[in-house]
Backbone:
């Protein structure tokens, strides 16, 4: 894919606010800590309401999936023209171990390849050490499909 002029891309600051205000991100408390072109980091603070097993306190895997899908979509948006939409085409999560009860879950994602129609993303979730992941993620996002397209004031 040819390079896109920076002026034609979604503004990063506006998009960070839009992502955090999405109802599912707000409900889970997803907070974006780093958002650059092609890279995103975010976290979810531990909350007992998010536990899949109340006895152990281990966070439900769906929380990790939602975190990774959300930041994966965010990095796809960081690389495409404002006004285009993105939809999750494929999402694979490999759960490597349970999240540590009581601990924050961090996520990181990068868009490592972009074509005219598809953004390729990989990432991982972890508690304390990014070199000791809870889960790995690979995903593809369709560009220009029927999907989410935020209103940032830069639409063409």
Residues:
């Amino acid at each position: 894919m040819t390079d896109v002029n920076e002026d034609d891309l979604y503004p990063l600051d506006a998009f960070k606010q839009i992502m955090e205000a999405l109802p599912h991100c707000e409900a889970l408390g997803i907070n974006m800590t780093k958002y650059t072109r092609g890279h995103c980091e975010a976290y979810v603070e531990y909350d007992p309401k998010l536990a899949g097993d109340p006895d152990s306190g281990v966070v439900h895997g769906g929380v990790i999936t939602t975190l990774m899908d959300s930041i994966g979509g965010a990095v796809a948006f960081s690389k495409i023209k404002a006004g285009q939409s993105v939809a999750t085409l494929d999402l694979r999560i490999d759960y490597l171990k349970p999240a540590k009860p009581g601990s924050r879950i961090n996520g990181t994602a990068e868009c490592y390849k972009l074509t005219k129609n598809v953004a390729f993303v990989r990432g991982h979730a972890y508690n304390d050490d990014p070199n000791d992941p809870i889960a790995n993620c690979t995903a593809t996002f369709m560009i220009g499909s029927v999907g989410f397209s935020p209103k940032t004031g830069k639409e063409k």
